[in-house]
Amino acid sequence: MATFIASGGRVWRKFVKTFPLGSNLSLKRSPTSALANGRLSSTSSENVLVSKDEKSGIATVRMNNPPVNSLNTALLLSLRSCFEELEKDKSCRALILTSNKPKVFCAGLDILELYQKSPDYVGQFWEKVQDMWLSLYGSRLVTMAAINGHSPAGGCLLSLACDYRIMAEGNFVIGLNETQLDLVAPFWLRQMMVDAIGYRQAEMALMVGALYPSNKALQLGLVDKLVPIEDVQTVAEEEVKNWLKIPDQARAITKMASRKPLLDELRKRKQEDIQTFRDETTRESVQLSIQQYLDKLKAKK
Ligand SMILES: CCCCCCCC/C=C\C/C=C/C(=O)SCCNC(=O)CCNC(=O)[C@H](O)C(C)(C)COP(=O)(O)OP(=O)(O)OC[C@H]1O[C@@H](n2cnc3c(N)ncnc32)[C@H](O)[C@@H]1OP(=O)(O)O
Description:
Blueprint: E1 2-7, E2 10-18, E3 24-27, E4 48-53, E5 58-63, H1 73-88, E6 94-99, E7 103-104, H2 119-137, E8 142-147, E9 149-152, H3 154-161, E10 164-168, E11 173-175, H4 187-197, H5 199-208, E12 211-213, H6 214-220, E13 225-227, H7 232-243, H8 248-281, H9 284-299
Parallel strand pairs: 3-4, 5-6, 6-8, 7-9, 8-10, 9-11, 10-13
Antiparallel strand pairs: 1-2, 2-3, 4-5, 11-12
């Protein structure tokens, strides 16, 4: 269903579309955004909320998968559909990725999707991670991560796939802590880390599964800017507008020139990467580590 809503001088396109597994992509206004002046509508089952300002062509994509935006199958499918939808939309020029629930941007992969599942299940799950990443990392749009909270592991993956990262100041962490779960970050994720912070720092960070507080992440270059949490969205919009002063075509071609080798490498090695993931995550010792990690998370309370 697609309708157009004119409000406050801006035209808002609103549609609610059902994606596989019942997840929804809907265009709606964000309560805190300076771009937001459309009509608000919501249902509790929507795991991705999208608002787009037609005038500027800037879309804000809010992950909305309580309590911590863990990347389960449904959220991965919704994110991919959403990225692809915006990619096809010729009037869309930029995408801001953020969380609808401040304080947690994304808790990474849903660990329960990796626990006590069949090899086929985890293989299919991993392919959804790969496909979501391919659509975000390979996007022609300006992509901006508005990291308004914790961003471990898969949250860091999402952030690294964007062109620019703005993070909330304060007691929030970001990084690739996979080794702490006895998991090994795949080559394409490791490469993004190397590209962001350099070989030596990435090598150390990956080996020890480091999670950095936001000020250390800024110092390392893992994020590009720190702002108070309440300003993350506004600053992201301002930053996007600066990026949009550059002609789209030249910017997008330049981006593709630098990202194509890694995109192509994963496309070529997709099945091998899935096989490795299947074999590793279903290994008994890894399952035990995942179980212990889950227990640790629960015991936190
Ligand atoms: C040789 C090759 C091998 C290939 C293998 C490849 C492996 C894949 C490699 C890379 C990709 C990425 C991997 C991952 O993303 S793994 C997930 C890692 N994530 C984490 O370690 C984060 C864990 N969570 C937290 O640290 C915290 O929850 C927080 C800081 C994000 C938020 O803290 P807080 O607000 O205090 O919330 P709670 O901790 O209380 O959590 C609420 C609730 O949610 C549950 N939960 C949290 N995170 C996850 C998660 N990632 N998956 C599933 N469930 C999660 C938590 O247990 C609580 O549940 P409740 O007790 O039932 O309420």
